[in-house]
UniProtKB/TrEMBL annotation:
This is Uncharacterized protein. The lineage of its organism: Bacteria, Pseudomonadati, Pseudomonadota, Gammaproteobacteria, Oceanospirillales. It comes from Halomonas stenophila.
Amino acid sequence: MTEQQGDAPDALKAPNDAMMQWWSQQWLQGVTPMARMQLAWMESLAEAMQFEAQCLHALAESGQRLSVCMSSETPANPQDIQECYQQLMHHVTRTHMQRLEKVAELSEDFRNRIWEEI
């Protein structure tokens, strides 16, 4: 009798392994698309954060240039200050427009990534 009991677990092992293998394949097929969609979302988020960091860097540079224009040792005439300010505003405006263009592209890229994963 003890021999028959020893054979029972071995007899059940093969069907259990096959069932576990089938179940793990089904589970992975269901999880993989969601993981890919999450990866696409995270990549888009990382790009958006990079664009925002570039914009903030440009704004910081403009603020630094403005402080240099305003804090010169010799009093500057109004035309020089106005010219410096106009250049800085042009730079900030151009940076903001580039930011808006990238945001529009990012939305389209995100849609394309999601569509590819579906």
